[in-house]
Amino acid sequence: MLAQEVARKYAHGLFLAAQDRNLIDQGYQELADVREVVTTESSLINFLQAPQVLEEDKLKLVRAVFTGKIEQLFVEFLLLLVRKHRAGFLTEIIDEYARLVEAERGIGRVTVITAVPITDSEREKLKDRLARKINLKIVLEEKVKPAILGGMIVITHNEIVDGSIRHALDSFNEQLRKVKVA
Length: 182
Prior knowledge:
The chain is of the alpha+beta class. The chain folds into 2 domains: 2-102, N-terminal domain of the delta subunit of the F1F0-ATP synthase (Peroxidase, domain 1, Orthogonal Bundle); 107-178, Glutaredoxin (3-Layer(aba) Sandwich), CATH 3.40.30. Helices cover 62% and strands 13% of the residues. The protein has helices at residues 2-20, 24-40, 42-49, 55-66, 72-83, 90-104, 120-134, 165-178; strands at 107-114, 137-144, 152-155, 160-162. A 4-stranded mixed sheet has the order 2-1-3-4. Strand 1 (107-114), helix 7 and strand 2 form a beta-alpha-beta unit. Helix 4 runs antiparallel to helix 5. The two termini are 41 Å apart.
């Protein structure tokens, strides 16, 4: 939960700063590139989070790696994250920034988790219902997790709807435990 709160706060601030400077689209692409770098080079984030490394050395590394390769606003943002000890949340912040940009473009990302893959017709029906509900064009990310047994879990940016059989069984089990037998 902390990661989501931190990501929302910092991504929103960055989004507003990028909007003021007309850099939203450039930020979308450049931050995707930064995300790829920190994902493939996990040692970079480990270095930026290491308590034994001096902050000055962390800042020098960020400047050396990113200055001239991405817009200065985004370099300064990365430096801020280092100073505020938030570098460990970088991928979540970038993902949230991307979500904000996509929402601005009229696109909503939704994750759906099912026990088995959904059919094309189920996918289209789900996308239509979600598009009407959140008033955005839906980009669906599908995950299959047999452990939910059946039904589906739908995750939007600000809501989780758990319609899985596993959840229903767990709720039923909890209700049974509360029943007092005389």
